[in-house]
Amino acid sequence: MRDYKWLHEFCLNRFGSAKALEAMLPQPRSDAQLRALSDDRYLSLISLRIFRAGLKHSLVDAKWPAFEEVFFGFDPEKVVLMGAERLENLMQDARLIRHLGKLKSVPRNAQFILDVRAGRLLGSPSSGAARHLLPEGEGHQTGPAAHFSFGTLIADWPVSDIVGLWKYLAKHGSQLGGLSAPRFLRMVGKDTFVPTDDMVAALKAQGVIDKAPTSLKDLAAVQAAFNQWQAESDRPLCQLSVMLAHTVNH
User: Within the chain, what is the greatest distance between any pair of CA atoms?
Assistant: First the structure.
């Protein structure tokens, strides 16, 4: 595996200047910004990501105001009360993307968010979020801190274990497996790499993996590689991800 110096020099040569390179790199949101984002916005973005999967993004985005309307602004406490009959009725609404499985994921993810907020789900032991759910010095759960929110979970999860957050979202959420979790995190601004086809090809070229990373072993290898490049560069994972993807010939 090549070091960050090589990656930086490759991208400088590709884009022609440091200014051009920096202009195309994404910036993650701060932890404070992630905590400030309300739970209804997280539910909206989770749902947007799920409905975008396999469809043209502009088509889904154009319909999203109607989704905001029928799902009560994605207020989790209201959405979670939507029963099967209500969702079946939405299949007749031509303003929406009428995919019953995806429609059902919205109240399920509303429950997920409420469970996180209520302290019914703990994060990974390595996650700072878990500490918000446990009283100091105690090993049992007695309820969340008053300020705890889904955004706290997202903000406090360490990027050195970002694949752990992917797994957590896939396990407890609905339809958040595969690339949905990392793409959702990129949408909300949480620092993460995304294993796109180009990034996977680049990781193969670097000898980090030999196939798309789906196993725990391969995900750990990718995480370790990004942790090393981050330690060498002090850059966010999202920037390293984009830079690495551009080392693949187009």
Answer: 58
Q: How far apart are CA 237 and CA 4, in angstroms?
A: 12
129-159 confidence digits (pLDDT tens): 454 443 333 333 444 444 589 999 999 999 9
Residue type (1 letter), 246: H
Tens-digit pLDDT profile for residues 85-106: 999 999 999 999 999 999 999 9
Contact in structure between 155 and 35 (CB atoms under 8 Å): yes
Instruction: Inform me whether the pLDDT recorded for 22 exceeds 50.
Output: yes
Annotate the chain with DSSP letters as a single string: ---HHHHHHHHHHHHSSHHHHHHTS--PPPHHHHHHS-HHHHHHHHHHHHHHTTS-HHHHHHHHHHHHHHTGGG-HHHHTT--HHHHHHHTT-TTS---HHHHHHHHHHHHHHHHHHHTSS---TT-HHHHHHS-TT-SS-----TT--HHHHHHHS-GGGHHHHHHHHHHHSSS-TTTHHHHHHHHHT-------HHHHHHHHHTTS-SS---SHHHHHHHHHHHHHHHHHH---HHHHHHHHHTTS--
Look up the pTM and report it.
0.89
Q: Please say whether the beta carbons of 4 and 210 come within 8 A.
A: no
The pLDDT score that the predictor gives to residue 147 is 58
Q: What is the pLDDT of residue 123?
A: 56
pLDDT digits (tens, 9 = 90+) for 55-65: 999 999 999 99
